[in-house]
Amino acid sequence: MLNYRQLHYFWVVAKTGSIARASEQLNLTPQTISGQISLFEQAYNIELFQRVGRQLELTESGRQTLSYAEQMFQIASELETVLRAQPEEQQIVFRVGVADMVPKSIVYRLLAPAMALDGVLRISCREDKLERLLGDLAIQRLDLVISDSPMPNHLDIKGFSQKLGECGLSFFADPALAARLSAGFPACLHNAPLLIPGQDTMLRSRLLRWLAEQHLQPRIIGEFDDSALMQAFGQSGSGLFVAPSVIAEEVCQRCAVQLIGQTDAVTEAFYAISVERKVKHPGIVAITESARHQLFQ
């Protein structure tokens, strides 16, 4: 079984950079700390540090161990804060993972109802690739994952998808590029520079299929896994870009771009993925109710 005291000594040494500084912080002798770390290394037949000159540097095993130790002691610190709080001061930490292609404006609108629960929740939000987020969901590092696709069938992870809603797709361009588009929508897309979502998104295949059905061949000049980055390139005039129609007005105002056209033939859906089939978490309930009855009404 993992010796958490030894792991803690290692963590402090790695954070402070030396056994001497760690001994001052822990109020222990350097010999005690060094001996305990040696026992930890012997138990797993690894080396955590290597000496380079007069400095200690982490080995590859040390870096990997530190990554896990950081997360463990961060969670332990959060738990201690919760346990020491008075009942009326306690908050529920609501840990949300967001797939990187979900537009940030959509994320904010989805999470806002949970943040408005009179201080009951403290939201911890992290953005990453969907599969990594689902891995953290499986081991309960996350309470919820927001994605543009439901739970993938090929993953051996227990999770349940709730569709929050869907909407059509809007096309935008900066004013200079918009002025050069002579035809009406959607004909103006033909041979126009276009920025599209990356290969891992559900929207990409739907968009390309619709363009083919309309006999349109834009010049695809960029593919982006991050919707904010795609909008930044579009705002600079690199090409037309797309966003969910439900935030079209906000995109125009924030990015100073023009709405070129909209279609409901291509839709983008958003999902809440959790480990509970019947959702009880107050944050998830607030998100799903608001999404279905307000945002995607």
TrEMBL record:
Residues 2-59 form the HTH lysR-type domain. GO terms for biological process: regulation of DNA-templated transcription initiation. Gene3D superfamilies: 3.40.190.290, Winged helix-like DNA-binding domain superfamily/Winged helix DNA-binding domain (1.10.10.10). It holds the Pfam family LysR_substrate. GO terms for molecular function: DNA binding; DNA-binding transcription factor activity. CDD domains: PBP2_NhaR. Keywords: Activator, DNA-binding, Transcription, Transcription regulation. PROSITE patterns: HTH_LYSR. The keyword Transcription applies. Belongs to the LysR transcriptional regulatory family. This is LysR family transcriptional regulator. It comes from Pseudomonas cremoricolorata.
